[in-house]
Amino acid sequence: MVAAIGHGEAIAWAGWPAVDVAVVDAADERRSGDQFPGVAVVRRVRESTAAAARRPLIVVVTGHSLHDGLRHRMAKAEADLFFSRNEIDSVGTLVDVLLHPENWRRQVPPPGELPSLGIARADVERLIEYVESEGLAGVLGPESPVRPDPRSRRWLRHRRAMAKAAGIEPVNITTGNRPMEWEAPSIRQLSRVWQWAARVRRPGPR
Questions:
Q1: Residue 206: per-residue pLDDT
Q2: Partners of residue 62 on adjacent β-strands
Q3: CA angle 192, 66, 136 (to 5 degrees)
Q4: Of the candidates 163, 156, 79, 161, which has an alpha carbon nearest to the alpha carbon of residue 122?
Q5: Rounded distance, CA 194 to CA 119, Å?
């Protein structure tokens, strides 16, 4: 065991080139922004070991294995194995995965269906980075209050910047068609992309 550290420490940690296997918890539901910080950890491991002689095995364990946005992001980040929590049901199972990964076929499954949100060729991570750096997570979340100064030009600036950074195409989120009169994705569209990619799904009322 080299280290047992939280997501923030893992992203800043310089010891990844000496690691053979990384077990990553994908989610942190307490976060107000991106609730899947495990994606940034996987990306950090890959970036920091790109020139290393060996490629660390990255095993993702999550309680959100059916979340399409998470699966999309983990596949792009190049995680090796992807398990729901109930699949790793004992210490013995985890040890077997780590020592004999060749016996397990739990690669990141593709999303069930990429939604019509203008992101077929987009870099979703760039959108997430922009939202967090600009402090927009509270505005784009489903629980957010009314957007302040909705007609302000700063929102047009944000819409253009997010579209440019991530390569998001404007679409009508009801029909999936490109709206001829829009020059940038709507806040509603960007909010849907953010929630799809970065937020844990909450169970609806029964």
A1: 40
A2: 84
A3: 30
A4: 163
A5: 11
Report the largest interatomic distance among the alpha carbons of the chain, rounded to a whole angstrom.
Answer: 58
Distance CA 170, CA 182 (A): 7
Residue 147 reports pLDDT greater than 80: no
Q: Is the pTM of this model over 0.70?
A: yes
What's the order of all strands across the beta sheet hosting 21-25? 21-25, 57-62, 81-84
By residue count, the chain amounts to 206
C-alpha–C-alpha distance, residues 170 and 173, integer Å: 9
The stretches of 100-178 forming alpha helices (DSSP H) are 124-133, 137-140, 153-166
Structure tokens at 80: 């090796």
Closest CA to 67 of 167, 191, 186, 203: 203
- CA 81 to CA 57: how far, in whole Å? 8
Q: CB–CB of 28/63 below 8 Å?
A: no
